[in-house]
Design brief:
The protein is of the alpha+beta class and 542 residues long. Helices cover 14% and strands 30% of the residues. α6 crosses α7.
């Protein structure tokens, strides 16, 4: 993985937490859990019966009946869904739900419907075999279709279902005999009509598609000096040497402590200790021998200062210099060289990152070490919304977010977006994707090697304290790049309203800022730059 030529920064909020629940607008108060209508719905206990959720999907009115997750056998579960296009859908245009609920590769039907074990930091992707569902592609007003989405074995008692553009209902995981009597479905017939994949898709066809996948967190600091990623096993933080050190030196600057305190807080959150590696890197200015020595000296300086900021006695620490031998990006211009000057600190806690103390996410986040950057586009309060015009002024969208809901260490939100079309209607990627990434990069600067890379709503960051929190993401089986836990299929034109579902890590704040940042460090004309911001979004415990 390479780093793009832009300022990328961050702090890892540890991907740990307990149950996370959110449901979109519910029109059924009788079937499991406490349901309250509203833009983001309500939280409650999981249901063992049908639940009904209504929403607008790219301008079309849709209701989804959600069953519990059913254990069909020792290795397979199935989620029955009733998908209905409202008879009074005001948008008379054609509606292909597969354009919303299926990823590009592999093109499995309803493949973006995912189930999440929030307590175990795991999710399951569907294992339905790739096929074309003509009925789904041409769903007519008033028509209802029953479909089953198949997953591997799920050992949790409850899971959160991620329904694109609808919301996040929580359902119980039940046995087949229990479900058949409650749901009124011939589950065996529904299940037998589905072909399931036996191997992973994507670039690598190996692997078990039934296995759960790990949720990850990617964050950036507002001062452009750090970026971090957290997996279930490691916390990796990249420190910009241009902030940590004077050029060509290994003496720490006055600004270095702000960076290093981030790492110190991470270290302190794992009382059991573990392994820590500190690796220095340089650019290719000066000769190779000088750069090798400088990288070693910088790694040692970071090690020494971290030992002064926090207790390292339970950690096995290694330090190493790579000199100029492992650049993050190729190139000999100053932008590339600035990125390559870095120190990388990787923590591998004993017991994994879930072993962090409960307070691990909030201390550094609550410290407002930097000011929120000035907004470059229109600003509105979350519940009120903000209207953003297209560059040519021919179309606009209005975006609002009434609240985000906290469960465990995650925040769930369903933004409401309405569009005023131009000639062809607004393409939502222009308003929702990460405009700071290049054409063939995602938010993590993962390069698609020139292939089309759907970004969806990956540009919807939360700002709290002095950090920017990207939507959570994960690596699908067989894939080479991360897939965001935000809407992926928003490249189509919008005429009307739609929900935009996003999952972020919780940073311990009472309110947050939703920010679509302006483009930075990318070539002019390669991206559509439509920054905007929503402020004063309450974080609600539900």
């Amino acid at each position: 993985m390479s780093v793009s030529r832009r300022a990328v920064i961050g702090y890892p909020v540890l991907a740990a937490g307990s149950a996370l629940w959110l449901a979109a607008c519910s029109d059924d108060t009788s079937s499991g859990g406490d349901q309250t209508p509203g833009p983001t719905g309500s939280m409650g206990a999981g249901s063992s019966d049908w639940q009904s959720f209504s929403g607008s999907m790219m301008g079309h009115s849709v209701t989804v009946g959600v069953a519990p997750l059913v254990r069909m056998d020792d290795s397979t579960t199935m989620l029955p869904l009733k998908i209905t296009r409202s008879a009074d859908d005001g948008n008379t245009g054609a509606f292909d739900i597969s354009e919303v609920w299926s990823r590009f590769e592999p093109n499995q039907p309803l493949s973006l419907v995912r189930v999440i074990d929030a307590g175990g930091l795991r999710l399951w992707d569907p294992i339905n075999e790739a096929s074309i569902d003509e009925e789904l592609r041409g769903l007519q007003p008033g028509n209802e279709l029953v479909r089953g989405v198949v997953f591997g074995a799920v050992d949790a008692a409850q899971v959160t279902v991620s329904l694109p553009m609808i919301g996040f209902p929580v359902v119980n995981v039940v046995e087949k005999a229990e479900a058949e009597s409650a749901l009124g479905l011939d589950l065996a017939s529904l299940f037998e009509g589905i072909e399931v994949a036996e191997k992973g898709g994507g670039q690598d066809s190996a692997g078990d598609p039934r296995a759960p996948l790990n949720v990850e967190v990617f964050t950036r600091s507002l001062d452009t000096s750090t970026q971090s990623r957290t997996t279930t096993a490691t916390v990796t933080t990249i420190l910009s040497s241009d902030v940590t050190f004077e050029f060509g030196k290994y003496d720490l600057t006055a600004q270095a402590d702000a960076q290093l305190q981030i790492v110190a807080d991470q270290i302190a959150s794992y009382s059991g200790g573990g392994d820590m590696s500190i690796v220095g890197h340089t650019d290719d200015v000066a000769d190779e021998a000088f750069n090798q020595t400088l990288s070693e000296q910088r790694a040692a300086a970071v090690h020494k200062r971290l030992g002064e900021l926090t207790d390292l006695s339970s950690w096995t620490v290694s330090e190493e210099g790579k000199g100029e031998t492992e650049p993050a990006v190729e190139g000999d211009d100053e932008a590339a060289r600035a990125i390559n000057r870095r120190v990388v600190v990787t923590l591998t806690p004993d017991g994994g990152t879930e072993a962090a103390s409960s307070a691990s996410a909030s201390p550094s986040a609550a410290r407002s070490g930097g000011s929120v950057p000035e907004a470059k586009g229109p600003v509105g309060k979350g519940p009120d919304g903000v209207t953003v015009n297209s560059i040519d002024g021919q179309s606009s969208v209005t975006i609002s977010l009434e609240k985000v809901a906290r469960r465990g260490k995650y925040l769930f939100g369903v933004a409401q977006v309405s569009g005023v079309p131009g000639a062809d209607g607004p393409a939502l990627t222009d308003w929702l994707s990460d405009s700071s990434a290049g054409l063939f990069e995602d938010s993590r600067s993962e390069d698609s090697a020139g292939a089309f890379l759907p970004k969806g709503a990956n540009g919807l960051d939360l700002i709290a304290g002095d950090r920017r929190y990207s939507p959570c993401d994960y690596v699908p089986l067989g894939a080479e790049r991360h897939s965001t836990l935000a809407e992926l299929r928003v490249e189509g034109s919008l005429s009307g309203n739609t929900g935009i579902c996003v999952i972020w890590p919780d940073m311990g704040q009472d309110s947050v800022i939703l920010d679509r940042a302006p483009a930075a460090g990318v070539a002019s004309g390669t991206v559509v730059d439509l920054p905007w911001r929503l402020t004063d979004i309450p974080v609600v415990d539900e």
